Amino acid sequence: MAHEQTVITTPDGQCPAHVFTPADGQGGPAIIFYMDAVGIRPGVLGMAERLADAGYVVLLPDTYYRYGIYGPFDPKEVFKGDFRTVVGPLMATTGNAKAAADIDAYIAYLDGRSDVHGERIGAVGFCMGGGMAIASAGARPERFAAVASFHGGNLATDAADSPHLSASALQAELYIAAAENDGSYPPEMAERFEKALSDAGVTFSSENYPAQHGWMKPDFPVYDEKAAEHGWKQMLAFFGRTLTRR
């Protein structure tokens, strides 16, 4: 695995980003990795590295770039206190609509790399990043082949930028991994979201994990190794089937 850092110019400013590439130097299909609300930190970098080790060029943008310098945070310490007090001001600077507004800049960066295989790309998002990944794929549907959301919350709400409103535009196949008893994605919301996908003819699969919201993140207090490893198996199989290699 090779690790680079770069800065991508977006309509709203300069977005720091990490790029991970396969160790063999041969490149691979591109996947945009949308972080969770606790931001860029060693645990997230490690996950992006693992994805790159599976044969992908992984772009990890810092979607809090509009806020400025922060952290890195230790999730276990953040969750001990008032989560919203710590990360709320950062979350207020981003969202699904802003992620969609940034997607052309991210794609242009990937298009400029000689190690990216294929024109159509993938995206994976965790927690708040799940909705960002879906909204971004809806903004540039012709470029996305696959989107995975792990414990993504608020996927079908009354907000103007709710991810389910992107359903009619999506061309990507979706994999939706939900946590049981997740207040940010209750059964009635899952039903609304999946109905929107079905009505739009989107190819998707969904799976409920016997774990808590955030189970995939190795530095979260709720990390569930067994469920996380199943998630990785599903994710890699999904991208392996949907993304083109040379």
From TrEMBL:
Residues 17-242 form the Dienelactone hydrolase domain. GO terms for molecular function: hydrolase activity. InterPro entries: AB_hydrolase_fold, Dienelactn_hydro, Dienelactone_hydrolase-like. It holds the Pfam family DLH. This is Carboxymethylenebutenolidase. It comes from Phytopseudomonas punonensis. The lineage of its organism: Bacteria, Pseudomonadati, Pseudomonadota, Gammaproteobacteria, Pseudomonadales.
